[in-house]
Amino acid sequence: MIQFDRIEKGLQLPPFVQGVWTIQNKGEDATIQLVADGYPELVIPINSTIHSVFNETVFSTNTPFLIGQINTACEIKIAQNSFFYSLKLFPWSLGLFSYQQAKALTNKSIPLNEISGQFDAVFRRFYEQMEENKHSLMPLQYLLLELKNQLSTTETPLLIQDVLNKFSGVRQLTLQNIDVKTRFSRRYLEKQYAQHIGLSPNQYLKVLRVKKASILMTTNLETNIQSVAQALNYHDTSHLYKDFKGLTGLSPSAYLLKNNPLHDYESYLSQWDY
Q1: Domains of the chain
Q2: Distance from C-alpha of 163 to C-alpha of 208, rounded to nearest angstrom
Q3: Residue 6, phi then psi, degrees to nearest 5
């Protein structure tokens, strides 16, 4: 069984990390059908190899890797007795780790050392500390502090506000949401999304709506598809079906029937701030 646990105490998080989870498979080899959530991730395997499948393209690695934004079907294959850390990054933070635009990382899992050698010494020291302190958070805290020291955050208030609006269900940015002195255009916002997020504003909104739909369906199995579509401002259920299958490879009903081997589904859902 696959178990998700958020580390709630004992860590000082850098400003670009939304949260840290331990993920472990205590049973047989397993596959999780993921629904994209709008958060990129830095995944750190501990003596494990992780296989990520995006639209039948397989990425395999046993070293730290980044997962960019996802807007296609995705599976994660986790071997028996695997253990790894998942650092959920704020959506606008992906570009901190790469000189490329974030869209170059969309629908990909890329080993960090293929993007930049900047962090090689830090991760070597992290793994050395893990060997010495297997049951301590000290190595992880060392890693977070080193990442904070090496990465300089870039302020993108317009982009951040627009992302937060989409998370809360607001579909368009209004002047009341930002400093009225800020001058912007739709084209400028689209460039910000391409550089820092990796998807267009409309693509990103679609990802969040499908993720919210998956949560609504799985937390209340009596909820019908029509009420979910209405709650997420879809014109009709056919548009929800189209978006859902486009991003997950499954219809909503097929997704509900699929038996994901999760130890605690509530822990899985608690990864995201909605």
Answers
A1: 1-119+154-274 (1.10.10.60)
A2: 10
A3: -80, 135
Helix (H) or strand (E) run with residue 33 in it: strand 30-34
Q: Side-chain half-sphere of 96: how many Cα atoms within 13 Å?
A: 24
* Both structure tokens of 69: 């934004």
Q: Give the integer Cα–Cα distance in Å for 223 and 202.
A: 26
Q: Does the pLDDT value for residue 271 go beyond 70?
A: no
Residue 262 gets which letter from DSSP?
Answer: B
Gap between the Cα atoms of 67 and 61, Å rounded: 12
Residue 112 neighbours by CB under 8 Å, 6+ apart: 42, 63, 64, 65, 66, 97, 119, 123
How far, in Å, CA of 145 to CA of 128, rounded? 16
- The helix (H) or strand (E) run that includes residue 53 is strand 50-54
Assessment of whether the complete model's pTM goes beyond 0.90: no
